[in-house]
Design goal:
Blueprint: E1 3-13, E2 19-31, E3 41-43, E4 49-51, H1 63-73, E5 82-87, E6 90-91, E7 99-105, E8 111-119, E9 125-131, E10 140-145, E11 159-165, E12 170-179, E13 182-195, H2 198-207, H3 211-228, E14 244-246, E15 248-249
Parallel strand pairs: 3-4, 9-14
Antiparallel strand pairs: 1-2, 1-13, 2-5, 4-6, 5-7, 7-8, 8-9, 10-11, 10-15, 11-12, 12-13
Length: 255
């Protein structure tokens, strides 16, 4: 089911100095087999809101086929029966998307894998694929080693811990970025579902009139504030050779 989520996104850095940010953003939940046909939304072409497949996956292969291939490579082919995408849309043709989630379901509709897609501001993209054991209940707890350079103020060699309440009437995601001393940054995304209608899309456009440039502008504004607080810059390594890093399902081991 396609929907719009009115979300609040926060980041809180606790070490070596505290830094906090919070923004409101409209995320779309899109069924890749049944994309919406609302006049204010388009696929791969200009509109008020749009999904451009080149913004995801490898930027070339049809998106659903690309995700299905990654699932098959990981031995998770059963999870490609229904794939939904939680993402920031383009607005008036513009946009930048730090994080999208592909939610991958089996023939019974059960969530069996989550593919976390991360973009950095250097035009690079990487994916973290985490399985979901059969019968697992929300919230999901997953983990992956950080192998992709995102922020120039964060080291490599860290670990992500994801806690996800999959999209329904609400969605919730908590990401802890940890080193050997524990969490040093916590990021959250939380929001409630609204129907995918022209009225809802138009209202979102009025509430977020600068959405197309807001995210990228906010990233650079927050980076300036962090730099002024004395955070040191980390050199950017080469991106990972493979497009996907495999993570772990921690839900069962933590219950």
């Amino acid at each position: 089911m396609n929907a719009l989520y009115s979300t609040r996104v926060t980041h809180t850095r606790t070490r070596p100095r505290r830094h906090h940010l919070a923004y409101r953003l409209p995320y779309l939940l899109l069924d890749l087999d049944h994309l919406p046909t609302a006049p204010l939304f388009s696929r791969n072409r200009f509109n008020l809101f749009s999904l451009h497949e080149r913004d995801h996956g490898d930027g070339v292969t049809p998106l659903r086929a690309w995700v299905a291939a990654r699932l098959a490579e990981a031995g998770l082919a059963e999870a490609e029966c229904r794939i939904t995408l939680l993402t920031l849309p383009r607005f008036l043709g513009l946009g930048f998307n730090p994080l999208s989630l592909f939610l991958c379901h089996d023939t019974q509709g059960a969530l069996r894998a989550v593919l976390y897609e991360v973009n950095n501001t250097f035009g690079q993209r990487h994916h973290y694929l985490c399985p979901v054991a059969a019968g697992t209940r929300a919230p999901l707890r997953q983990s992956a080693e950080k192998v992709f350079y995102v922020s120039p103020f964060m080291d490599m060699g860290l670990r992500y811990r994801f806690t996800l309440t999959p999209p329904g009437e609400a969605v919730g995601l908590h990401i802890a970025v940890e080193d050997s001393q524990g969490p040093m940054l916590r990021a959250t995304l939380a929001g409630t579902s609204q129907p995918f209608t022209n009225a809802v899309l138009l209202r979102a456009a009025l509430v977020h009139p600068l959405l197309g440039v807001k995210v990228l502008a906010a990233i650079h504004w927050e980076a300036l504030k962090i730099w002024l607080k004395g955070f040191g810059l980390r050199p950017r390594p080469a991106p990972p050779v493979t497009p996907v890093t495999y993570g772990q399902d921690l839900t069962r081991s933590s219950t």
